[in-house]
Amino acid sequence: MTLHPIKIFMVALMVVGAATRAMGDDDHESETERSEHEAVRAAVERGELKPLSVVLQAVLPKLPGEVVGIEIEREDGVWIYEFRVAGEKGRLFDVYVDAATAQILKTKEK
């Protein structure tokens, strides 16, 4: 089977187009991440939530293991830190903490 130059060109265009779209998506995600970081930083400056370092000092002694991941979300107007914690025997927990008060709201085993 012989590939004609036009077919090779068309395949190359499709590959380049797909790669360009994928790179564009990455730019959009990083832009979204930047705006989320800015929103969190602004909320800390306004006193709506405590900085992560302060919350960690308060909750680390109460956690059932080692923190392996952290997320922050706003749920119903309340900032919540979600800590993924690896406990004994490979058990995983999600620990939800009120970001304004550093109080543990709930712990859920995964």
UniProtKB/TrEMBL annotation:
InterPro entries: PepSY (IPR025711). Keywords: Signal. Residues 1-24 form the signal peptide. It holds the Pfam family PepSY. It comes from the Bacteria. Residues 55-107 form the PepSY domain. This is Uncharacterized membrane protein YkoI. It comes from Hyphomicrobium facile.
